[in-house]
Every structure is written in structure tokens, then in C-alpha cells.
# Entry
Amino acid sequence: MSALTDFLHRLLRDAVRISWTLFRIMVPVIVAVKVLEELGAVVLLSRLLEPVMAWVGLPGGMGLVWATAMATNLYGGIVVFAALADTTPLSVAQVTVLTGMMLIAHSLPVELRVAQQAGARLRAMLLLRVGGALLFGMVMNLLYTRGGWLQAPAVLPWRPEPAAAGWVAWALGELQGLALIFVVVVGLLLTLRVLERIGVIRLVNRLLRPLLRLLGIGEQAMTLTLVGMTLGISYGGGLLIAESRAGHVSRFDVLYAMSLLGLCHSLIEDTLLMLLLGGHLSGILWARLAFALVAVFLLVRLVGRLPLGFVDRHLVRNPAAGRPLAAEEGR
# Structure
């Protein structure tokens, strides 16, 4: 009984520590984004993006949808998309391109801050997310257009309920979201502990080791990367922050893991959300996953040719300055 009590105590202690790290990052950013949203910053960003939408075969008005998703979150983008759906008809291919871009680049103020706290450079992650989304959109638009695929008119299968107005309703919604994050973190830690005890982690490590070695992600960061890919960057990133600060994960693992998570995370929840908007699985899941893996593979090859000084200044800081990690030997 004492062993169980000690286990639960350590579990809750770790969950509070990780959640507190996330909350210190998220709360100021959430408040700042809300203020900027009220001041019209999202509308201004959407106007800047209108010409860019032509590059990916979308009407200029869809820039507001993507801008909202990037500045706030996917749910904000969904609400704007639903409001424009009747007046801006799109094909299934166009919806897939838009939702794929939203999946790669959304919630940037919060998620970029999480990546930064893990050790990745903010400007590098911003360029990767926004540039990656645009490149993905251009490639998918070219494929769908040249192949004549998914050109039927899109039908919006679900419309979200309008969000309650006012700062109080917004604050209550955000508090509920933070509480849910703590619950999920507890569940994640418990699951990881159990999987480690019964040997599942070792089995998964063994099965995925060739792919991760190819991508340059070490085994210490593998489980955390899988958490982020399946559940979300805040959860995987939060765990990665803790491991990075403890010196258990090299700066190269941080860079490659956060790059992969930036391009492809929350494969379950976010993919389902974009399906409800009419996105096609060929783009929002399979093409996005393949794009992320290829992009990180190329990134690993590029970083391997760069001087360490350049990597530290522009891509990722060394979390263990003055005490080299074994994981970085033999780069």
C-alpha cells in the first residue's frame, strides 16, 4: 500500500511540475492573443495573407480562416470557415488543401512558445510551420489539380455552435481547457509508467528504432515524440521540456522532435476535426504524415552539414552547455 501511495505521489508531483511549466507558457500567450484579437490583429493578418492564398489555389477570403487558426486555434478557424462556407463554395480538394495547411500551422503563439522552451529557436520553428504549410498547400494543390482529383463541390457536414460572447465566457472556457490539460497530463504519465513496466515501451522502441535513426531522433525522445504526434504538441512538448531541462535529451533530438511535431501532431483529434469540415484523409492524414517525415529527413541531412555554432545560434540552443550529452557524441 505504501508503494502505491508513493507511486501516486510521484505521479501527481510530476504532473503538477509539467502542467505548471505548460501553464506558465500558455496563460500569458492566451491572454495576449485574446487582446490582439479584440484589437483586430487577426483581420490585419488575414489581409496580408489574401494574395498568398492564390499560391495554393484558394480564394483570398480563406486567408481569414488560416489567419484565425494560426493566431488562435483550430476551433477559431473552424468557426470562421463555417461562417464563410455558404458564400465561398470550395471543392473537396480546396478544403483538403486549406485544412491541411491549418493542421500544420495553427495555435502558433502557444505552440511556438512550447517549442522555444524545449530548446528550439522561435524563428526557426515559425519558418518551419508557416513555410511548411505553404509548401504543403502548393504541392497538394498541384497534385489535385493536375490529377483532377477531389474536384466535386465540398459539403460542410458539421457546423459548430457559435461561441459565447464576452470575456467571462472566454475566461471560463480557457480555464476548462487548462483543467483538461492537467487531467490529460496525469493520464499520459500514468500510461507511460504502465507501458514502461510491462515492456511495451521497449517493444515500440525496437520496432521504430530504424525509422527514428533515419530521422535522427534518439530513443530518449521517441516516446515523447509519439505522444505529441498522437495527442498534441502541448502534451509531447511539455514532456520534452522536462526531459530537455533534465539533460536527458540532446539538442539535436529536441530540434528534430519539435520539427516533426510542428509539422505533424495530434493525428487523432485534429484530423477528426478537419474531417468534419470536409477535408479528405488523403491530404489531412496520409499526405501530411508523409510530408512531415520527408521534411524532417531532409532537415537532418541539412543540419548534419552545418557548423555547430550556426545550429546553436539559429536552430536550437544547447540545453546542456558545459556538459556534453552522450546522445550528441558522434554527430
Summary: The chain has one domain: 2-320. The radius of gyration is 20 Å. The CA atoms of residues 212 and 218 lie 7 Å apart. The chain is about 75% helix and 0% strand.
